[in-house]
Amino acid sequence: MTSLENNKVENLSTLEDQTELQTLTPENFGTYLKQKRNEKGESLEEINKKIHINTRVLKAFEQNHFTNIEDFDNVYLRMYLKKYADYLGIDDYSLIDKQIFEDTAKQVNRAAKLVPEAGIEAKRSASSSLRNSHLNSSFNTPSRARKLFFLVLSLLILIVIGAVVVKSVFVDNQLSNPTPVVVESNNAQVTQEQSNQELAPTANPNNTEGTASDTTTASTAEETVAEPVVVAEPTELIAEDGTAVPLKGVYIKLSADSWIGVKTSSSQSSWGELKVPLDTLFEVDTKYTDLRIGNVKGVKYLYINGVKQELPTARNITNVKLK
């Protein structure tokens, strides 16, 4: 084949690729993702280890199934699809934002025959009922973390009350009414006050040395006062990795990439995203009332007012009430 023919083949291949890019639709976008992955020569498991997206989700994307994937909300699926496309070198999100998740999501699912529309509605209804029952039970039944928090708070209050009682009963009483000290003088027992008055050293006109009774009186005149006992309240605790965590506030530490959503009000419909760096103790602003965690296994620990929260690692997503 001549060089002229080679140039014609290359130009034709480039033209076909451009045509394919221009005609991308929600129905063939998954096939395009699979094609780009095959060009990189990587499997779904290898990509999962690099970008931490479940292989079930990646496989569903390549089958043109972008919404209603089991327990994953569309807000996470949109984020995962953008992350996968970015990893494959696709930086144009217009198709993802304007068509896949807004205009043609139901048509894509119906065309792919993965989730019937009736099944979608039933699943959404069941998921909504389960979420509402879980929220109602969490409000009506005290959680283990809440019980532990009130127990620690009650213990701290008892310690403070005990310290105040000890100080008021023993220390202040000792300072106001010192115990009389008994001393011996001339074979008779007298109190400290009497020794100060009756056995006070008198003037010695002959400038002779004081008697033994004068020496005893002078030695017992000095009285030591006990220092008040002050009990310092703890202000922080030590986490399992040796990090000092304050007792007041909300602190979170991540060991792997996780999506952290926040709300400033429980009535707010949408979630904002909170950027949390890895392996760093991060303080959550007190203005937030609700916390949502994606990839729960990536959370090293979460402390609310000094109480470690027990997160359900069996689930991929969980909500935490902050106020």
TrEMBL record:
Residues 208-226 have a biased composition (Low complexity). This is Helix-turn-helix domain-containing protein. GO terms for molecular function: DNA binding. Keywords: Membrane, Transmembrane, Transmembrane helix. It comes from Psittacicella hinzii. The chain crosses the membrane at residues 148-170. Residues 188-226 are annotated as: Disordered. Residues 188-207 have a biased composition (Polar residues).
